[in-house]
Amino acid sequence: SSDLALITCGEQSTMYYLDIESKTLLKLPELVGTSVSAAWFLDEETVCCYAVDGEGICSCYRISPSANQAVEVFTNLPIYSGASESGFLFTGTRYGLYIDSDNTLQICDLRTGTRAIVEGLLCSRDSIAVTMNAEGTKMLIAVLDSTSTSLNICQLGVLDMKKRTVTILDREGYEIRDETAIGWFDNDRIFILAANSSGEKYLYLYAFI
Length: 209
Description:
- The chain is mostly beta strands.
- It is built from one helix and 18 strands.
- The chain has a four-stranded antiparallel β-sheet with strand order 4-5-6-7, with no helix packed on it. It has a four-stranded antiparallel β-sheet with strand order 8-9-10-11, with no helix packed on it.
- The longest helix is centred in the first third of the chain and has 5 residues.
- The protein is elongated.
C-alpha cells in the first residue's frame, strides 16, 4: 500500500514503520530490543527485519505493527560471506538461504521460521549468487566456477515457492566465453550476459516455468 512505509532518519539511521492513513509511527529498535540493520515488508500486515552485531552475527524478527509486537524468527546466525564457515543470505523477501558449514543449503521461510534442505546443488561458500524474481515466488541460486576469472556459471538452481519444487541445470561449455551478468529477465526466465574475445555479446535465456 502507498500508505505504508519504512523510513530511516536521524544521526543513528534509526528505522521506523509509518502508516500514513492511521497516523502510526513505530520505532523498530524499540520493538525488537536492538538496533535494526535492514527491514522490508513481507505483506501489508508484516515487517521483517534483522540486526547484525560487530562480529557479523545476526538475529531476525517478524513484526506485526497492528499488534505492536515482534517475534524472533532466529538468532545467533552469522551473515553470509565467503570467509565464514556458514551464513545466512537475506533476499529482501519472505525467503532467505542458510549455507551450513558442510555447504548444505537450507531455504528459510521468514514468515514461519521453517527450513528445508535444498538437494542437488554443488555449492561452495565463495561461489554462489542468490536473487528472487520480482513476484517473490522463485529463488535463483547460481553456482559459479571458482576456478574461473570471470563470472562463469556452472550450475543453475531455481526454487519455486508456490509449487515447492527445485529445478537444477548443470551447464556445459560456459568457459568458452566470459560471462559478466546474471539475473531475472522476467518472473519465469533467467538471463546470462557473455562476450567472446572479439567483443561480440551474447544473451542466454533460460525458462523455468
